[in-house]
Amino acid sequence: MQSQVRKNQLSFKAVILLMTFGLIPIALAAQSFQLSKNEGEVKVTGTSTLHDWEEVAEQRNGSMAIDQSGELPSISSLSFTIEAESLKSGHDGMDKNTYKALSTNKYKEIVFKMGEVKSISPVVSTTNKYKVVASGNLTIAGKTNKVDLPFTLTVHDGKAILEGTKPLKMTDFGIEPPKALLGTIKTGDDIEVHYNTIWK
Fold first, then answer.
1. Is pTM, for the whole model, over 0.85?
2. SS3 (DSSP) at 178
């Protein structure tokens, strides 16, 4: 009986060792990328009853892990954060209205964290470039919604470029579109986030 127990224990240890060493090549194949803070751009655009507007995110960071050992790259993790009060339009009054709408006194960051990659396919006639749809949680002004994030991914020479556009509605995140001049100027509910980011 004791002999059988020992054999079972040894077999179990052998399986664990095989699993561990079997996972090592996968872990080594995944390459970690950090969002470059001084290159690329993330901006938000929208409309108002007076004119169209845009705000650029000046403070952002993120990380991404990509495994390129297969026929198609595999993104195992992706997250990025924008400092809410780093959104700048070039107009102090508009920025103050934005920060008030985003409740930046309570919620300092806008955060996306990927849960899964829903699809990835190569861009025809282009090497190292892929169309990707990633699903994950986007948190704005303290409210988290699950969103699909579409982008093109280019990976070459230790650098990744992630670019795309994501339409959103402010009210989906409990944000009342900002107003100015006693409500005579109203911001539209629909916005777009444009991202052209460099990862190294």
1. no
2. coil
